[in-house]
């Protein structure tokens, strides 16, 4: 009851903050908010209240309100904090149910459809720890992590040994467990994609099944009845190194990076296929001249579609141009040429409204025969003035084979696959953190052996990185510990 003194209640004030101290256990105490929130101009939209409560014991069946906010003379609470035997309950009228997640240290509101983040402490990466040693069929050149709705999280490994094939693993009880084996021939990469409700997995085979035969890469389709991938379509390729799936205006495309034809000819066409909804197969849509192509990276900027190729080797030198293409008039046309050094991978990422492209340079082989492995890989940024990608930052790497961009909380990271320095394959691969004006700075050095590929993924248990080795039949799953 407001307007008169209450037994066992004393108003206290400290440094401009006003509150109440209870010396006994009053059954009910109410007051107009204006008496307490005297300087809170945002009340009731925004306010805070601190409750320090000590209760020696409480009956198991008992449940009491500690604090409620009422509207005018109404008896219905707009907001309430209720205490039961071992829990706090947040109640909010009309808006939904509040839930305090102690694991994520956040307050969430259910609006009847989804949990909305009301208040949450942002995670920060603390350290990286070993989580799982994954023994694969043979050396692994690529890892593809993907999720099939209502089935689970999967990972496909592109393995070297043609006799043993490549493996598909399923995340089970916090670990990857072997799920399916597929016959592959010096597999270099996997790509998971969907066409409507259909789910596909395509492999880049570097060799043919039998010596002298045409090399073929294969598209597999997920069978919801058999719960495994079944061979669907075969495509002729030439020492294929990568597949990239993408959509343009509701049409689905597949681009293959053909590395070389025979043992010497690296100046060949790579091919872009388009899904035909009538035949339900992929058909050739465009051929693009490439030079020892190793990777495709598709990305969009506003209404524009781009495709970047990592050209590696022209038969004489690795110091050659890689090309960024733009989609114009129903086909990809050259947009910009960037000199690279044995480029193996492109990674596109955005930080706020800034667009970046990172290239993994593997080696500098000149026409004179000189080879360097410890060279710069480069991050380029799109200049809105010149409308081209310009150099933003050089990072010294050791035969870099892959970049992977990921975020933890508000922090942005890049991890590089360092594979060889000219003497050893046992090197540190490095995680770099975005520091604004300073660019990316090294924050974690991870011991790797012939590191070939990095993949970042999330589960309900947290965030992980997995790396593959091109030198051993062992990949490692690392857990990102946060604070």
UniProtKB/TrEMBL annotation:
PANTHER family associated with the record: THROMBOSPONDIN-TYPE LAMININ G DOMAIN AND EAR REPEAT-CONTAINING, THROMBOSPONDIN-TYPE LAMININ G DOMAIN AND EAR REPEAT-CONTAINING PROTEIN
Gene source species: Sinocyclocheilus rhinocerous
Protein name: Thrombospondin-type laminin G domain and EAR repeat-containing protein-like
The keyword Signal is annotated on this UniProt entry: yes
Subcellular location as annotated: Cell projection, Stereocilium
InterPro entries for this protein: ConA-like_dom_sf, EAR, EPTP
GO cellular component: stereocilium
Entry keyword annotation includes Endoplasmic reticulum: no
Major subcellular site: other
Gene name per UniProt: tspearb
Recorded coiled-coil stretches: none
GO annotation (BP), single: signal transduction
SUPFAM superfamilies on file: Concanavalin A-like lectins/glucanases
UniProtKB keywords: Repeat, Signal
